[in-house]
Design a protein that fits this description.
Helix content: 25-40%
Strand order of the largest sheet: 2-1-11-10-12-13-14-15-16
Largest sheet: 9 strands, mixed
Number of helices: 15
Distance between the termini: 56 Å
Low-confidence stretches: none
């Protein structure tokens, strides 16, 4: 029997019908759906979209925060054989317009917050003569929120009165179901296509890794439009019948309130979010009495942060290293390895092969047959059942990224004698200073150990004498005011870094530019410099 993303809701709806499935807070109002109610709502939305002619292979984009509308639309699209395209709600109009046109979206579901961006994107597409988006669907269902004049439908009206029975559509496991654009930290975003089969394989991987059960209560505090929250947390939890609590957008006060009041057992957070949670006065075991596991990814965590989390909160941590192209999970660092292998990305995830191979001098795709020795730095290559079907409309990028049947991550790293992966940096981020290679991450990991440093991003800056020099962009902890002299002494005299690796320039900032998923946007730092 073939299973699809639309079927992930079928089992809990059938056997856990009265169990709480979805909880959403809107101001002081708590709304909740059982699994039977959620299943019926998804079916009504599927029939509503089908009434517009949305069907197999059509792209439905969502410019949405973490809301019930996001969940209804995604699962409804899956049951129709359509492709759901979750879009980062922080994008500018030109960026949104590019994704809608590149992805060929037939419909965009949006809400009042972000509506101005959607309206301007619509105007841009019309000016370009790009008429791909036929349906501009307004997700807000409050009577206080009038339907914008330029919108074509209201989502709740589309679903109202429709049948709660499943739509009879033949959907195959090898059909595409998710189109997710890369965050674009190194260039124009590319549309990553995943099939139903790759998503269900990834669910199984996360079930094994995170040990999800129907008793879990998951908090979606990171954006659902990002692969980490959606694919490593929300969808796997949904399939086992866990309760899902939606936090519209990350807010540290509200996050701690929901963790306590909803008795949250699991959530995903980027390290920057974990730092904010740790620095909050509510951080304590009492506030998180039900919390059993927190997943983080996007970067490793410094040992002092791991120890601080253990002391202040008390629950386990697990690290995931991944990319949108791989579903995302490629390797795992388990709770018991957090300190013994701090800085490592762990061992390959279940069912995946991961190697490090030598980067070719002729700029051809890295050959997996030319594997590095333990400790030798090269490009990280991965293959497994969760690999993308490919980039949309990008044959050249596909040929390079999927050469030899392996996904080429563009990340530099090495594997140690015990098989653990250690990431050095992006190939594009490596700094060549005076003919010496410096890996920014190595400098960042050393600087973040200073007690006055909250966040740091290291890049190369042009220099007449050395070609490039190491430059550190710093954010100090509240109340601290570290100087370049103090940090330099910490690195060099503390025997933490070789002298040639230390930053020659320090830039002190109030904040670092980040994507919605918490990744630091180094290209913006380069442009600012």
């Amino acid at each position: 029997m073939q299973q699809t993303l639309g079927d992930t809701l079928a089992w809990p709806a059938r056997y856990l019908s009265d169990k709480p499935a979805l909880v959403a807070w809107e101001g002081h109002c708590r709304r909740a759906w059982t699994y039977a109610q959620l299943d019926a709502e998804v079916n009504r939305h599927a029939h509503g979209l089908a009434s517009l002619g949305i069907g197999h292979g059509d792209v439905v984009a969502g410019f949405l925060y973490n809301t019930p509308a996001f969940v209804f639309t995604m699962l409804a699209a899956a049951r129709l054989g359509a492709i759901f395209n979750p879009v980062n709600y922080r994008l500018a109009p030109q960026e949104l317009a590019f994704i809608l046109q590149d992805g060929g979206a037939r419909a965009l579901v949006f809400e009042s917050e972000g509506g101005e961006v959607a309206a301007r994107a619509q105007a841009l597409l019309k000016a370009q003569g790009a008429g791909c988006v036929e349906h501009w669907i307004f997700a807000d269902d409050s009577e206080a929120d009038a339907l914008p004049a330029w919108a074509t439908q209201r989502l709740s009206a589309l679903a109202r009165g429709r049948s709660s029975a499943p739509a009879r559509i033949a959907v195959r496991e090898n059909d595409a179901c998710i189109l997710m654009y890369t965050s674009g930290t190194t260039g124009r975003p590319k549309g990553v296509l995943h099939t139903h089969r790759s998503k269900l394989a990834h669910n199984a991987l996360m079930h094994q890794t995170m040990q999800f059960t129907r008793d879990d209560v998951g908090l979606a505090m990171a954006p659902l439009n990002h692969t980490a929250e959606l694919h490593t947390s929300f969808l796997p939890r949904l399939q086992v019948g866990a309760t899902q609590v939606l936090l519209r957008r990350f807010d540290v006060d509200e996050a701690w309130r929901l963790i306590r009041e909803e008795r949250v057992t699991f959530f995903f957070a980027a390290p920057t979010m974990i730092t904010m949670l740790l620095n909050h006065p509510l951080a304590s075991p009492a506030q998180a009495s039900a919390l059993r596991l927190v997943e983080y990814g996007g970067a490793s965590m410094a040992p002092h942060l791991i120890r601080e989390w253990t002391q202040k909160v008390g629950c386990d941590l697990v690290q995931v290293y991944g990319t949108t192209e791989m579903g995302p999970c490629m390797s795992i660092l388990l709770p018991r390895e957090q300190l013994s292998h701090a800085g490592s990305a762990g061992l390959p995830s279940m069912g995946h092969d991961l190697i490090v191979a030598r980067v070719r001098e002729d700029n051809a795709p890295t050959d997996p047959a030319d594997a590095c020795l333990p400790g030798e730095v090269g490009e990280i290559l991965v293959r497994g059942p969760c690999m993308m079907a490919g980039y949309l409309h990008r044959p050249d990028a596909n040929a390079r990224a999927l050469a030899h049947g392996w996904y080429h991550t563009g990340d530099l790293g090495h594997i140690d004698e015990d098989g653990y992966l250690w990431i050095r940096d992006r190939i594009d981020y490596m700094i060549n200073s005076g003919a010496e290679n410096v890996y920014p991450r190595e400098v960042e990991d050393a600087l973040v150990e200073h007690p006055d440093v909250l966040e740091v991003a290291v890049i190369g800056e042009a220099d007449e004498r050395w070609g490039q020099v190491v430059a550190a962009h710093m954010v100090a902890r509240p109340g601290a005011a570290p100087t370049s002299e103090v940090l330099d002494a910490f690195l060099v005299h503390g025997d933490r870094l070789a002298a040639y690796k230390r930053p020659r320039r320090y830039h002190f900032r109030d904040a670092l530019p980040k994507t919605a998923s918490g990744k630091i946007q180094k290209q913006l730092l380069r442009m600012a410099g």
